[in-house]
Structures are given as structure tokens and as C-alpha cells.
Design goal:
By secondary structure, this protein is an alpha/beta fold. Helices cover 30% and strands 25% of the residues. It is built from six helices and nine strands; from the N terminus they run E-E-E-H-E-H-E-H-E-H-E-E-H-H-E. A seven-stranded mixed beta sheet has the order 5-4-1-6-8-7-9, sandwiched between helices. Strands 2-3 form a two-stranded antiparallel sheet. Helix 1 (30-41) packs parallel to helix 4 (109-116) and helix 3 (81-91) packs antiparallel against helix 5 (145-151). The longest helix has 12 residues, at 30-41. It starts with a strand and ends in a 14-residue tail after the last strand. The model has no long low-confidence stretch (mean pLDDT 94).
Amino acid sequence: MRIAGLLLAAGAGRRWGEPKALVRDEHGPWLLQAVSALAEGGCDTLTVVVGAAVVGPTEMLREEHADEVQIVVAHDWSEGMGASLRAGLAALDADVAVVSLVDVPDVGGDVVRRLLDAPVDAGTLRRATYLGEPGHPVVIGRAHWSGISAVATGDRGARDYLAEHPAELVECGDLATGVDRDVPP
């Protein structure tokens, strides 16, 4: 099984005040932290979807990860997360995708590893939870990609698909908060 790490980082970050692909904290750029989490967690390939900000994130990725990361531009990024997810899934050459977001900076490789501890295949649908609340990353086998792409609109991403096709839940609250950071502290 080829496992692709898919990082969604295309949004404008309107509530934050800038694209979150450009945000830094005391640990460095969120973009690089998220890519490292996917790599350290066991993903065979890495794909980052950009959109609102292309040049800055692309330069950062090329400087730090050279040829290790495939960069996909979601030209319709302003439609919402669904557009980024569709663009990313369409670009993958893998059996399974580990989908994560750039704005969950405390999610590290240990969370991704836990999600991949159990065997995965094209039918896998698995999701991290934090104190019982579903979050990211989400492990999605190829058998689900077309169904997800068909319903991924606006900022709902795979939410509607996951409501109809319940994922295996993996508690990760002891490893991270999984908090999606939408506004500056």
C-alpha cells in the first residue's frame, strides 16, 4: 500500500488575517510542521495543496523539502476546503491518503503514526479524535475518493461523506489537542 500525506493549505485565512500556510509560531512555519508530521508519521509521499498564497509556501517547501513534496495549486481555492480536497485527491498516486490541515499545529508525527498503526487498504476510513471529538488527520482509502470528491463542496470538505460513511475513530487526545486554529491568540 502506498500511503500519501495530503496537506490542505490553500485557504486565505480570512479570520486569521493572512493565509495560514504563511503562519509561524515558536516552532517555526505551520506549513513545515505539518509536512514533517506527515513524513514522520509514515507517509510514503507528500502532497501540499496551495491556493490563496502560492509563491511563499512553494519557496518554503522547495527550500526545506526540495523534491520530496508535490505541490498542487487549487485554482478554485476560494470555493472552500472542498476544492482543495478535490484537487489534492485528484493529484495522488497512492492507495491511501492521510489528509491533514495546515492549521492544526500541535498534531505531530505521533498522531499520524497512531492512525497508521493498524493496517490500511483502499477501503480504509479512519479519523483522529481528541477527547472524543472528531478531527484531523483523516485516513481515506482510494475506494472513498470519488464519493468524497462528489460531495466535497464549500468548507465542508469530507464532512458530509463521513456523516454517511462512519470512520473508525482513533483517540489521540493524549498526543495533541487537534485544535483547528482559526483566529490568532
